[in-house]
Amino acid sequence: MNKTILTIAIIIAGFCNLKAQTVVLEEEVSKTIDSTKVTNEDKLRSDFMIDFTFYGGGDEKGFKGTLENSLGVNFYFNLKYKLNNTFTIVSQSGFNLESYAFKKSDTNTVFPSIIKNDMENFTVSAFVLSLGTRINIYKKLYTEIGVMSKYNFSKVHYYQTKDVNNKLMEVYVHDLDYIKDFNHEAYVRIGYNVINFVGYYRLNDMFQKVSYTPAVYEVPRLRLGISFGL
Question: What is the 3-state secondary structure (H, E, C) of the chain?
Fold first, then answer.
């Protein structure tokens, strides 16, 4: 009798043990996650970015002092589509404000006017649209390359001069025909997390000839700066 009960107990214990092992195995398999897989929730993301830039490179075609107080500010809405853990497509849209301060050189006697003022600048406001590719190098370190187009909806020439009584006057000239409506640039970013260094290079001339400016000069094409994600 005792042998029979012992035999039945061993069989039941073995069956329970086998069943318990099967349940544990099923739970482990159900919780397995592929860490290389990009979920739908992670693919599309958006944020905001702000750039502060200054103008680099040498003087071009006669302008002097173009690096003095020539600042730029960009406000971007950043839309990112993650292809995989390495590559991300990035599109930016937003607003760009650029100021180009300069002094005339001896060769620049007719542009933008024949008057030689002590202080002048161009201020250009634009709507911006860009497309680029971000490459993740290591963890939060990345680089990004792309192209950008700008529609210049506001173009202002500002200068200071003196009247016949030697009184200082500030003059603003709007809607400048000799500044093109569109600018196109290539850009490169190198960043870590939400901070990056950026370089923009304008691919086209900013100015064009019109009847009252027979000679056209250029400000530097290279622009360097730092960006912050918000």
Answer: CHHHHHHHHHHHHHHHHHHHHHHHHHHHHHCCCCCCCCCHHHHEEEEEEEEEEEECCCCECCEECCCCCCEEEEEEEEEEEECCCCEEEEEEEEEEEEEEEEEECCCCCCCCCCCCCCEEEEEEEEEEEEEEEEEEEECCEEEEEEEEEEEEEEEEEEEEEECCCCCEEEEEEECCCCECCEEEEEEEEEEECCEEEEEEEECCCCECCECCECCCCECCCEEEEEEEEC
